[in-house]
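Changelog-linked ticket: S-adenosylmethionine example.
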Amino acid sequence: MTPEQDERAFRALTRKISDARGVLCEAYKEKCLRRRIAVRMRARGVHTFEDYARLLDGDAAEYDLLLDALTINVTKFFRNAETWRALAPYLAELWERRRGEVRVWSAGCASGEEPYTIAVALAETARRLDQEGRLGRARVDATDVDRTSLERTRAAAFPESAFSETPPDLVRRYFTAEAPRRPGPALQRLVRVLKHDLTSEPPPAPPYDLIVCRNVVIYFDRPMQERLFLAFAEALAPGGILLLGKVETLFGAVRERLVLEEPRERIYRRPA
Ligand SMILES: C[S@@+](CC[C@H](N)C(=O)[O-])C[C@H]1O[C@@H](n2cnc3c(N)ncnc32)[C@H](O)[C@@H]1O
């Protein structure tokens, strides 16, 4: 097969997946996409994109397995603990300004560790300010495109390994003693789980005081990243905060709209 034929077959396959499942394959980096599709092809013992496309025609379950492979969902509580320490004063400021009614979006929440990290951070903010009674006013929208991730977020039962970066006193304060550990009811009430595709849908319920989107945009190509950054800037309330992943950087027109507050921790703010 010539490189042109291979390219054509690859394009036909990704178009087919996009049409069938509504996930915009073109939005993902091609290298990433190819690597993930290759994993599924190897698992099914097929060698060409055409054969894999035919296999998809006769096997709806393979679409699910492919989408699971495409949406890499590695995560943990307090991932990059120093980032969450840096975020604490911003959360306190948002809390005071909104009197506890802080609206947060965890975009690409994977199995729920990130939205529940935010819920713990909000509960800690309330506790430090002696305003625990207001915790019920806050809300964390946890969204992902991946069905299995959403089921896990809803189940909210986490293995011990998910807590390797979490300060032990926070584990004791907010989670059940036995693994799988579950967050207490006050935290569970804060988190609302929604299916949402970042490549094709507008933000679910703006305005947000804090948008956390970490280790998600790295899988998208630059035009999609730029579109998303603009959508985040639009969805933030004045004075609101955007938190990206440790290796993600804002670029393009949106740099005029958001101010870089903490370069190392990727904390940005929409000016009030
Ligand atoms: C590596 S995980 C990041 C999890 C978490 N934010 C963190 O930093 O620990 C990437 C997540 O992005 C989600 N994702 C990938 N494509 C997406 C899309 N088009 N819309 C919404 N979420 C998507 C995946 O399903 C996966 O759960």
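Closing comment: Example verified and attached. The two ends are 57 Å apart (CA to CA). The first strand starts at residue 103 and ends at 107.
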